[in-house]
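subagent[fold] <- orchestrator: predict structure for attached chain, return tokens only, no commentary.
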Amino acid sequence: MGATAVLVSSLYLASAVAQPTAGKLAEVLGPRRIFLYGVVLVLLGGLVGGLGQNLAMLTVARVLVGIGTSAAFPCAMVLIRRRAEEAGMDAPPGGVLGGIAIAGMATAAVGPPIGGLLVDAAGWRWAFLINIPVTAIAMAMALRWLPKDPVPDHGHSGFRKVADRIDLPGILGFAGSMTALVIFLMSLPHVEWITLAVFVLAAVPTVMWELRKTSPFFDFRGLAANGALARTYLRQALTLLGVYSVMYGMTQWMEAAHGFSTVGAGLLLLPMGAVSALLSRPLARRNLVRGPLIASAVTMLLGSVGIMLLTSHSPAIAIVLVSLIFGITSASTTVGNQTALYLAAPPDQIGTASGLFRTFGYLGTITAAVISSIVFRDGVSDHGLHTLGIVLVAAGLAVLLLTALDRRLMNRDPNRQADTPDTSQNPKSPHQGESSVSTPTDPTITPERTALLAMDFQNGIVPLAPDADALVERVKGAIADVRAAGGTIGYVRVAFTENDWATVPETNKAFTAVAAGKMLHHEDTATQIDERIAPEHGDIVVRKIRYGSASTTDLHQQLTDRGIDTLVLAGISTSGVVLSTLMDAADRDYRVYVLSDGIADPDPRTHQVLVDNVFPSRAHVIDTTGLRGLLGSA
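subagent[fold] -> orchestrator:
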């Protein structure tokens, strides 16, 4: 493997692993903090590379730069998501997402030509040293404008606590697997069997670990249940395979077969970056998904056919036209998939999901480099370029099928709630037929008519919840927010007296076992409310003997007496007390909010299906940050 290949693969590998890791750290430790750490790493990479004397130092510099820059996108997505929820926004902030898209595409398209000019003019060291003034500016802007992260809770700030929350073994297993996979891909067409074996040996135990982990780094179960997110990752990988095949394969062909200089070949691809940047913001501001993704697949097919028609005698304008077509592909896929990611990813996992989104993109990029090396293995020629075009046609067809047959994208609004007006039949709708994802904001909460119900947070049930301590802390914060705003707090616990056990009929499948086993006695420690969120004077406290909070209690009457017409639900479990209480409250005409990060279920898949597919038709699904924003705007 040559020196250039080592440097390129080290950057890809570092970025592929660091992106989701930075996202996970941003979710746990705060996006501003992780972004600043990333800036420092880029600065160190610039210094090491600029002063480097050998390949080892340059490789270290590339890895530092790769890890550092990997913090930017996932941290930005976490910040955007939190700010949108604080503002009570359901629809993706298209203008902001468009800005991120423009920055990313401009860097990818304009960076290489500018880097080439810089190296020609001042020497290769300046490819690293340029990072020093850039990072200094970035750090100053971040310190001035990025909102400060909350002070970490001392109970969760130790190394072991943080390692458990971010799933450090899962991250290390993922890093080992990705290292082996990237090295294997970069070695093709020669097959490195040892590397492939290492990949299998690292990946299998990692997958087994992640499947057992309640809060995994790579949530295989969640991804399997969230088809929209999985398809978004796959579309991104396949489309970037096409875009970077143009940037790598066509550049190589232009230099070796057509006779252009390195700088000239780079300049011929500049229009691709310009078109991408110009189209990104107007597309993003309209919050469209399906339309841009269809356009991405179609233009990828057209551009691939164009590649098959090029020869070493084609005029420069023909090459520019092909690159312009792929510029449209780049803009539309980035905007469409980025918006789809924002919608499909669980709000509390947006950082990790954004990092994995970039990881899949890197896999597409690496595959593009591999394909280029295979088609040109016998020398760069028109025949190799045309073979590359055929491969890209196949990839474009796959992207088209992934988009056109995606039922989630066929709906006007994939996340539309039941109370969202349906304008699909309105002939005056400006974007009829598009997958516009704009939704109205949640109704403003009136604190004095609102009650937060903390349901089944009792000593014997809390330990059954995944990541129980973090769940209780989030609910504790929500309770404090509602109290401070003047709202009501209600507590519900499940507990039985001797008479209650005697009255459970044998027809009740769930509670017959409870009665027979004399479980959940009302005086047992297991049925007492967790002391971390203990009731205070004036709160509502009820004891139930079935799933629903109001089914065997006077909760509804107490709420009515206080003029409560809005409920915020938090509880364990999602498929038990939360589901039953939500259905009953909806039938009694309460306005209902469900805290997506204030509920939990022993079965993560059941939890996700209810939160994504059932609850939105009957309630407003928000998280604790969104609740704080609604209370603040009241």
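orchestrator: received. Logging for downstream: The longest strand covers residues 591-600. Residues 444 and 630 are 6 Å apart (CA to CA).
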